[in-house]
Amino acid sequence: MSFSPATAREVDTLVIGAGQAGLATSCWLSRAGVEHQLLEQRPELGGAWQDRWDSFYLNTPNFAFLLPGMTYDGPEPDAFLPRDEVIELFRHYARRIAAPVQLGTEVTRVARADGCAAGGTGRGGATPGGGFAVDTNQASWLARNIVLANGAYQRPRVPASAAKLPEHITQLHSHDYRNPQQLPDGAVLVVGTGQSGGQITEDLLAAGRDVHLSVSACPEAPRRYRGQDTFYWLLQVNLHGPDYGINGLQAEQLPSPAARFTCNPLISGNDGGHSIRLRDLGRRGVRLHGHFEGTDDDVLVFSDDLAARMALVEASFGQRMQVMLDTYIAAAGIEAPLAEPVPAVDWQPSSSGSRLDLGAEGITSVIWSTGYGLDFGFLDIPVLDEWNYPRHLRGVTEVPGLYAVGLPWLTRHASSTVGAVGLDAEYVAGQIAWR
After folding, report:
1. Where are the alpha helices (DSSP H) in 266-376?
2. 3 state SS of 21
């Protein structure tokens, strides 16, 4: 629906997206007395968790559910919630905070209103900066403020060379994978060893499927470290590290903008939570390959560096993250047991070369666990950098009245997680209330 000033609805603040970032922002805006509306393109609440496969469990423990107005207070703080319970938890949260959500509403364009009245013509007409004109598939809006809360999992990324695979090969991005039964009989190739790739590989193994796995550079990590879930320590460093001069998980310390999109440690919340080790997968029968490079007819080409790649994946935690966590534990004066020894390297992959013949190996399906890209295609405002990331300071963009919440590394490593998104939402809501 194209913008129509005559029929546009007016509101002080529009929040685009009603996942965890949008709901947290709504909670803080309500507390500040700011009139607002959330627009959610999905027909039901539950955010991107609805795009996870059937056997998915939340990767962060229950104690990390720290949304404003509702934190976990149950009997199992160290347990992990299955997908459907996660979805229902967010729906319950929306009801609890009385979030004003309009479902089934896709935002198609956000532009400056150029002086049009916004935020209510009865309260003084045009607002500072002119406000924003918003088109959706349902109605037009005039808003004094816009909060971009549409998430970090917007546009599934698939290599361009995927289009060259034979037509009889079933291809799915992890976004669309639900269970092994949706795949035809035959072996499966999983491309990518982030959390999704590792967990889907385990899901396929449990179903008795033959699996090939293309190894990326995502680090392995212990599920538990020095007496706590590893995410406990990561969250503490995110939230309290600067108090002790430890800033490695703060956004301003990133070596480059590209580092905002590096993958998370290879762990799982399934089966009570566990580490995923590539060598363990290989020992269980998974055929490991190097990084996916492209296609040559029915043959897939991988980097010929599997041994070095696995060594890098295994060493990454100890080289950076472990040092940071140990430094924090010491600086905070926390008594914690010593780290358990690193498992011995007692299994080596057989040489699979750099080429994989799909037909010869009986591979009928490829699952692209290759991550997501940001998608702000509806923004008709020049505020994005070369990485399609809004230029901002603590979620306040360079455009007056335009804000962002819930993006990876918005202010810190955990900005897009349920453990820290509420902090950024609180700051942004405070800026809106002050404005």
Report:
1. 278-283, 306-316, 322-331
2. helix
- Give start and end residues of each alpha helix (H) in 319-420: 322-331
Query: d(Cα 251, Cα 254) in Å, to the nearest integer?
Result: 6
pLDDT exceeds cutoff 50 at 126: no
Within the chain, which residue ranges are assigned CATH 3.50.50.60?
A: 9-154+374-434, 156-372
Q: Could you report the per-residue pLDDT of 29-64, keeping only the tens digit for each?
A: 999 999 999 999 999 999 999 999 999 999 999 999
Domain 9-154+374-434 has CATH 3.90.550.10: no
Question: What is the pLDDT, as a whole number, of residue 3?
Answer: 67
User: 67 and 47 in contact (C-beta within 8 Å)?
Assistant: no
Q: Which fold has domain 156-372?
A: FAD/NAD(P)-binding domain (3.50.50)
Q: Which two tokens stand for residue 44?
A: 């039901």
pTM of the full structure: 0.93
% of residues, the chain, pLDDT over 70: 95
pLDDT value at position 127?
Answer: 44
Burial class (CB in 10 A: 0-12, 13-18, 19+), 143: buried
> What is the rounded distance in angstroms from the CA atom of residue 37 to the CA atom of residue 142?
11
| Paired tokens of 162 | 């995927």
Quick one: tokens of 23?
Answer: 């709901």
Judge whether 298 and 357 are in contact, CB under 8 Å.
yes
Question: How far apart (Å, rounded) are the C-alpha atoms in residues 84 and 180?
Answer: 18
